[in-house]
């Protein structure tokens, strides 16, 4: 979710109360999937070693998921998805915790499919459930550092890059019309949520759903 990270950086820079956080805040961590855990570890450790003490970590690493019938699931590919979305988040939290201020926070990212599964989304729903559970566990384990979760609905980001532009635009239009808010999400919608969780200091172990009401319809 590169667009979300850029938007959050921009708002932190524009708000004078948070300018002092800019160089000491890591927005986003991780890279595209790698079947070897050690590669993922090294990538995250390298990025964190480039920083000194900082205030907040928002993990937005992800990739387009291959959906389909459960009977046809490629288990090796499913493990790679889990590697990035679950172990990537856990690894980032593990190494970042040593450098985050006690008043800071870690924010993980999830999707709503764990709340409302659909046919063909078994692996995605399983990953979402795991990330939700580990968020609550980390909030206890890493206290007083706050750990929270942003649970996103359909948002206009590069997550959908595997679709052709006409198909992608058609999906956004159809999905938006079905939502109570009448549109799909934009990167700035999610950025506001990350920023809220950074600024607000009395929330931990919580999941904030940003989905335009899709879990209601």
The CATH topology, please?
Rossmann fold
Radius of gyration: 17 Å
Largest sheet: 5 strands, parallel
CATH architecture: 3-Layer(aba) Sandwich
What spatial order of strands do you see in the largest sheet? Answer: 1-2-3-4-5
Give a written overview of the molecule.
With 217 residues, this protein is an alpha/beta fold. It has a single domain, classed as Rossmann fold (3-Layer(aba) Sandwich). Helices cover 44% and strands 14% of the residues. The protein contains 6 helices and 5 strands; from the N terminus they run H-E-H-E-H-E-H-E-H-H-E. Strands 1-2-3-4-5 form a 5-stranded parallel β-sheet, sandwiched between helices. Strand 3, helix 4 and strand 4 form a beta-alpha-beta unit. Helix 2 runs parallel beside helix 3 and helix 3 packs parallel to helix 4. The chain is globular, with a radius of gyration of 17 Å. About 12% of the residues have low confidence.
